[in-house]
Amino acid sequence: MRTITYNGKATASDIIDFMVTQRNEEQRKILMQFFKTGPGEYGHGDDFLGLKVPETRQVAKTVAADISLDEVEKLLASRWHEVRLAGLLVMVAQFEKLTTKRLESNESAIKKRDKIVATYLKNAERANNWDLVDLSAPKILGHWLLLPTHLGDKLKVMDDLAKSNNLWRQRMSIVSTWKTSQQGDPSWCLRYAEFHLHHPHDLMHKAVGWMLREMGKRVSMDLLREFLRKHAHEMHRTTLRYAIEKMDEKERKEWMEKN
Description:
Elements: H1 12-21, H2 25-34, H3 53-63, H4 69-76, H5 81-96, H6 107-122, H7 130-134, H8 137-144, H9 154-163, H10 167-175, H11 177-182, H12 187-195, H13 202-218, H14 221-231, H15 237-243, H16 249-258
């Protein structure tokens, strides 16, 4: 793959023009089908260039230090799925750069992180497919939950996502907990797993089960079992299957029989 080049500060126009030149029609057709872009499907209306994720990651890595958030917002407004992903990956890279131990409580870093989070939330519906959410929400919102902030009540921010009528905002609320569970805090996962327990969409069944599994693996299998004792009988079977995936076959069978 060619490497993007630009003079001085990178612009959204530079990036979009370059990514369009990398268009792959054969791969585009595969992605359009894989991400369910047909009428009535969850990805309806999304359009792809046909770039693979490592190619998009390379673009984001190249420009992350040289592009402003204003220009990133222009990427998020693009019709192209991969361009929006590049914008989100740039935000991840810029956020992570501000999370070193030395910068955790640094006032300037806090303000910059908060600006990234505010921009992310403002444009949340532009992350309108599961890969866009999953590759960005844990590393931006999830990490933000663990750090000092001036944005106000973190619980309200996350509850607003969970209570939204938008599927992708809802998915952000649960998938963000991957990071908090990874750092030993199960409370966010348990809260939003319970909140979304009866969600009608398959993408949320999978996300809730996945996050419960990660919580059990990273924090406590006994805590996962406690949650299952309370809710296994009412959980969607997909959610339960995902949640118990790391258990042995005998225990998995026992839990499925309770469902």
